[in-house]
Write a structure and sequence with these properties.
The complex is a heterodimer of chains A (255) and B (355).
Chain A (H helix, E strand, L loop, with lengths): L1 H16 L1 H35 L7 H25 L1 H9 L2 H5 L5 H33 L4 H27 L4 H17 L10 H9 L6 H4 L5 H28 L1
Chain B lengths: L14 H6 L4 E11 L4 E11 L3 E5 L6 H8 L7 E6 L2 E2 L4 H6 L1 E4 L11 H11 L4 H14 L15 H13 L5 E5 L7 H14 L4 E6 L2 H7 L2 E6 L2 E7 H7 L5 E7 L7 H9 L4 E10 L2 E8 L6 H10 L3 E7 L4 H9 L5 H12 L1
Parallel strand pairs in B: 3-8, 3-9, 6-7, 7-8
Antiparallel strand pairs in B: 1-2, 1-4, 4-5, 9-10, 11-13, 11-14, 12-13
Helix pairs in contact in B: 4-5, 5-6
The chains are: A mainly alpha (255), B alpha/beta (355).
Chain lengths: 255, 355
């Protein structure tokens, strides 16, 4: 565990020593800021309109701002995750530093866990920016914090799963661009798989939509914790990291 | 499946010495083989390295040096055979082996975005050091490898020589028993090469060092023992001086003879020299005016220098020069790895292997 922590800290250092982390954080802050401003503007506009019409529809910050925003974050995350994971192993393979890690008294699993944790850590930094925006809702309104917490948990689980997949893909190539592009493709595919459920009700469409990463986020966005969905994400994390370990091992046999 | 090594392995004159020190063998390799899908990179290599030695791992590019080193460092698993480091098997106890090995790959494994001190700190922790111990070792390796002045510089901005030294510092940070250096002087300028060699020599007392190279003078200057491989096969393993004296099985001397009256019939001289008892072969290397240079090989165990000198003087010629012809490692190497290996060296090797 100590070794994982050492590697995790080194990876975090690498993210923040290069422009990668700052670029991702800036872009994410801008995009999410826009979403937030947009959602809040719409919420205020709707509220005023209702008052003018004298209608008494219940206005709810959780339902009308937090829930759609969390869904947005989960989709925007799909675009950011390849950029987080693409360098993890591809860069080490290209520069040859993988030889240092592989000949140090460290287990493969510790290396993988350390790198994955660093990726999750960077994603947490992204989420911090959303928390900053949501803090304004708590300052000027009174949304319920429990659904928000569930939403964040869902985001973390979902990101953890995608990051594990990205880590695996990063072990397959020396080229960061290829790793990034492939991860992006897989992320996108896992998102759109769910669309078949809109017009198909056969078994295979159910299976496909079950495999979609986004389907399982809906319960979290609603503010509920569904064990079924949590188990799905955790399974994907395990599978991703397991395949990473196998791939790292096979590197040694093939190289 | 056990295959006897197809190439006669040349065990040196001091194999007895090595044998009685067997208990202190740091590295022991037996029938080590690495096969890839289509090629065999390393083919049944066996050798032993005693503790505290500097050993040169010599071979042309693509001979299997790096692959062998990678197997020793647990980076690659062998397809067949065993290798032990400090008595620990590389397949069964990789973590323990890795703790005892410092490895410098061909390109120093550095992270360009890290500072030197930060990097050494990271590697030290990775190798299991911590706290005051780690700080002391960092100070020590910075001092030893002369990188103290770049401790706060980004590795990406360092020159090749500094990177190499940081790589070396990284390899010795945990004070390993065995140092494995893959072409440590590749790509350095002559001054840096000398500095690196001196550094490596200085490390020899505390560590057993295996360094690979395809540069022969490097081995002559740095190493005590040579392991020559070619095409994945072991060609020879011996000490540098033994290799040199035994490459031809016998002593060979260079002899410059000059005629008194301005003329010299080289064939006559050659004939005369050949008649000296104990001489097995005489070659006329070059002739300029009345001077001629001969290379005389004597039979094993015969000292012929005195007789040669007498023969020359008695015939009325001048003896300008008489010196032993030390065979350069380069020649030995070419003999051993060349496409047409000298039959003599081969037969000597064969005799040695079977005796």
């Amino acid at each position: 565990m100590r070794n994982s922590w050492i590697i995790c800290r080194k990876e975090m250092g690498s993210y923040f020593a290069s422009p990668v982390a700052y670029l991702l954080l800036t872009m994410f802050a801008l995009i999410f800021g826009f979403f937030f401003w947009n959602a809040l503007g719409f919420f205020v506009f709707e509220g005023m309109e209702m008052q003018m019409r004298g209608q008494q529809f219940p206005m709810n910050l959780n339902e009308q701002i937090i829930r759609p925003l969390l869904s947005n974050v989960s989709v925007v995350g799909l675009f950011f995750i390849p950029m987080i994971t693409m360098r993890l192993f591809a860069e080490e393979k290209r520069t040859g530093t993988i030889e240092l890690l592989a000949t140090s008294p460290v287990r493969d699993l510790e290396i993988i866990l350390g790198k994955w944790l660093a990726a999750v850590g960077l994603y947490c930094c992204l989420l911090l920016f959303t928390a900053l925006n949501f803090a304004f809702l708590f300052r000027y309104g009174n949304p319920d914090w429990k659904p928000l917490a569930a939403g964040y948990l869902g985001l973390l689980l979902q990101a953890g799963a995608l990051l594990a997949i990205g880590t695996f893909i990063s072990t397959l190539t020396k080229n960061q661009i290829i790793a990034g592009a492939a991860t992006f493709g897989v992320c996108l595919l896992l998102w759109v798989l769910e669309w078949v459920s809109a017009y198909e009700t056969t078994t295979w469409s159910k299976v496909l939509s079950y495999m979609s990463i986004i389907t399982h986020f809906e319960s979290f966005a609603r503010g509920t914790f569904d064990t079924k969905d949590a188990v799905f994400y955790i399974t994907v994390i395990f599978l991703g990291l397991f395949f990473t370990a196998r791939s790292l091992e096979s590197l040694r046999w093939r190289s | 499946m056990f295959l006897p090594c197809p190439v006669p392995v040349w065990t040196g004159i001091d194999s007895r010495v090595v044998r009685c020190r067997e208990t202190t063998n740091m590295i022991q390799v037996k029938n080590l083989t690495k096969r890839y899908a289509r090629t065999t990179a390393v083919d049944h290599i066996s050798f032993e390295i005693a503790k505290g030695r500097i050993v040169g791992f010599l071979g042309p590019n693509g001979a299997g040096k790096t692959t062998t080193m990678r197997m020793l460092t647990c980076f690659l698993p062998p397809s067949e055979g065993t290798a032990t480091v400090a008595g620990l098997d590389v397949v069964e106890q990789p973590l323990e082996v890795k703790k005892r090995i410092g490895y410098l790959p061909e390109t120093p494994p550095i992270y360009p975005e890290m500072e030197t001190g930060e990097y050494l700190n990271f590697v030290g922790k990775l190798k299991g050091l911590a706290g005051a111990d780690l700080r002391r070792r960092i100070d020590y390796v910075c001092d030893r490898c002369a990188i103290g002045d770049v401790r706060n510089k980004l590795l990406g901005k360092l020159s090749k020589g500094y990177r190499q030294r940081v790589g070396l510092a990284q390899a010795i940070i945990h004070n390993p028993d065995v140092l494995i250096l893959d072409e440590p002087t590749a790509g350095l300028d002559p001054k840096q090469i000398n500095e690196t060699r001196d550094l490596i020599k200085g490390l020899a007392g505390d560590h057993t060092i295996v360094l690979s190279t395809h540069i022969l003078p490097e081995v002559e200057q740095t190493c005590e023992q040579v392991i020559i491989i070619n095409g994945g096969k072991l060609v020879a393993t011996d000490s540098v001086s033994n290799l040199r004296t035994r490459a031809r099985g016998a002593e060979s001397v260079l002899l410059e003879v000059a005629g008194r009256n301005g003329t010299l019939e080289a064939p006559i001289v050659q004939h005369k020299l050949e008649q000296v008892p104990g001489v097995s072969r005489v070659l006329c290397r070059e002739q300029v005016d009345s001077r001629a240079l001969f290379e005389v090989e004597s039979q094993k165990g015969r000292l012929v220098r005195g007789d040669l000198a007498r023969a020359v003087v008695e015939c009325g010629w001048d003896l300008n020069e008489l010196r032993p012809a030390a065979m350069s490692l380069e020649e030995i190497f070419l003999q051993l790895t060349g496409t047409e290996p000298s039959t003599e060296a081969e037969s000597v090797a064969a005799v040695e292997a079977h005796s």
